[in-house]
Amino acid sequence: MEKLWAPWRIEYIEMPKEDNSECIFCDKPSQNEDEKNLILYRGKTCFVIFNRYPYNNGHLMVVPFKHTNDLNALTDEEKLELMDLLIVSQRALSEIMAPQGFNIGMNLGQVAGAGVKDHLHFHIVPRWNGDTNFMPVLGETKVISEGLEQTYRKLKPVFEKLVSGKK
Ligand SMILES: [Zn+2]
User: Fold this and answer.
1) Residue 38: pLDDT over 90
2) Phi and psi for 46 in degrees, rounded to 5?
């Protein structure tokens, strides 16, 4: 029988539990510095924010304001707005960046690769032919810092136009 030695588990178990003040998805919207924090849009129950360590430029996240890691804890209103904002995100990215495809998804729990495991969030990643394989998309990140602010400024008016067109 193979022995599994996993000292990192001890560290993990002993780690103090995080409280909300250390949660970026609670912290960033509370700062009211949306451009600096790359918050693209605030809805009633959810917001849209750029991933600062994106897989691809234009990698957005749609996040409920509610601090929860449980999909079942979301109200109907929150679920509806999450889906609406995912769709608007996809349309806005299509208009600005003309991607050839998208990965849209969620990592629930640390074991699944969630970077922020206590506050659920949808990823929406524009894809182009030849960028890389599907597999590393939601599990890993690569740093593309250049161009995020420019993309933010280009995307914001398009996003707002599309959201207001829905009303
Ligand atoms: Zn949170």
Assistant:
1) yes
2) -140, 160
